[in-house]
Amino acid sequence: MRKTITPKRNQSKRILPILEILESRETPVVGAFADAPVTLAPQYDGVVLINAIDGAQAFIGTGSLLVDRTFILTAAHVVTNNSGTKLSGTIDFVTAGGTQSIIYTTDDVFIVNGYDPNDDNTIVPNDVALIRINGVVPSGIQGYDIYRLHDEIGQNFTMVGYGQTGDGATGEIDGSSGTKRVGTNTFEATDNLTEGAAYFRNLAYDFDDGTSAENTFTNDYNIPSTLGIFSGATLVETAVGAGDSGGPAFINTSSGLTIAGIVSGSTDDSKFGSIGSYARVSAFARAIDLIVGTPVSNRVTTTNFAASPGAGNGSFSSPNVHVYDSTVTNPTEFVADIQAYSSAFTGGFTIAMGDVNRDGFVDIITGPGPGGGPNIKVFSGADYTTVLYNFFAFESSFTGGVTLASADINFDGYDDMLVGAGPGGGPRVTVFSGLNGSILLDFFAFESTFTGGVNLAAGLIDSDSNYDIIIGAGAGGGPRIKVVSGANLSVIQDFFAYDPTFLGGVYVGSGNIGGGAFDKVLVGAGAGGGPNVRVFDSSANMVQNFFAYDVGFSGGVRVSTGLMSPNSTSADIITGAGIGGGPNVSTFNSLNQPFPLNFFAFDSSFVGGIFVAGRAS
């Protein structure tokens, strides 16, 4: 159901923790023991009232002027109807000097990928939209930047919006919307805690009454939670209420107010004990930048990472990818479970991550291991169900398996798909365009007579801003690493990562480990070499050297990079145990120090080894 400005329609209530959109428009206006305060403070002049028109009905919503002053950031359900059809309307700038309106059309509405509305009055993932402003923003109104760090949990934030007010005992009051109000709360969890895996890109708060009685996160989910925000002895915490979704959650930084969240929904009419949900802006930052036209680096980073099963030692697993997020409340619980191939296939498969369709979400790329044909699939990172590509990289008769990497090799803004032949296929590397699937490069990395296959990664190793291709020899070829230019295939590096007599092959990764202008080359020993991880700089100097698992383990170690903690600002190291070691994912920083993120991605009895993938270049 959708809420008109008046009157409010009744709805059936659900038991927590189902998050309702409460007649669809929500805003932070319900105070603890009194109405949240009205504000016309100049710093909130960029928080706008949105009037969306659907036939004979008019709805209100809230939005925020972005720093470029040409777009409004809001919730997708504010500017669409139940079927996801875009709505036209007006944007009202409400200031102490009066109200000025700008008309927008459906052509001005942009919805991020993965938003799929329903008709049962509950929130859905990816509830983010932008409205392009076709008019002149009133002078003196400043826009807001978006929050790009991933450390929101534990931080207080400021709520601003136009919806219904009330207090925590009675909840929202019908007919009280339309006035800009301000309040505060604390982000204490991500919504995969309360709503399920698909809501990992949402931040959540609970509405405390100052006692343990209504501390929902602690009482119902057993996670640390404060008893509320106080000013002296007075509880000043607020909550969202029905009437105006899309409102911002501001975190104050050294550069001013930044938008960290977008109101999506809440429970229980915004009474004490209710839970409110915000789309996590940092998770949508690249998607927002691409819509707005903000210059986007070809470097792609994400807090998401993935694990897939290998095959060996007579141990088999279902062909499923588990996707995780290092910054959610429970980072060892997967946020997506993708069945990549038929359940009958037990050969294991490799994975990579890249923004193949350039929508701001990092996609999952899969390729079968030995025994399967070279069937490459790409699953959208927006919803992890939409298949973007499904093709054979080599002859369908080749069953040696494939290895994968992803990066924007031809500098067109789309991450491309790098595919290497597995054992038996020669050292062949083929690069397919993310834009249209065409072949960009096709070459042999080593002597064509070598049949051990290759392992792949991509990184910014030299100074030309083009991604370079990193190739590690497969089993039988020695621990040889070759880095070739993505621009012209000239050799940038060619060296042995371990003793040249070691013939177990090497796994490779790359990322901006420890920061700096260039990416580094990450290497893991193949089977027989122990779980020895090494990192080499852009001059092939070894700068890290450690064992990811027990030194006595001889199954090798697969490697990748990603952002593996909420405070990570450069690439961290992800490792997966090789054959015989169990499905153990471990994570380390640039100082060889392990993160607490150390877990089994599949059943602990599985000993076929696992592959890992992240993205932090």
Class by SSE composition: mainly beta
Largest sheet: 8 strands, mixed
Rg from Cα? 26 Å
Number of strands: 45
What is this structure, in a nutshell?
With 617 residues, the protein is mainly β.
Task: Explain how this protein is built.
The chain is an all-beta fold and 617 residues long. The chain has two domains: 29-291, Beta Barrel (Thrombin, subunit H); 304-614, 6 Propeller (Neuraminidase), CATH 2.120.10. Helix content is 2%, strand content 38%. The chain is built from two helices and 45 strands. The strands form ten sheets. Strands 9, 10, 13, 14, 15, 19, 20 and 21 form an eight-stranded mixed sheet that branches. A hairpin with a 7-residue loop joins strand 27 (375-379) and strand 28 (387-392). The longest helix is centred in the middle third of the chain and has 8 residues, at 285-292. The radius of gyration is 26 Å and the shape is elongated.
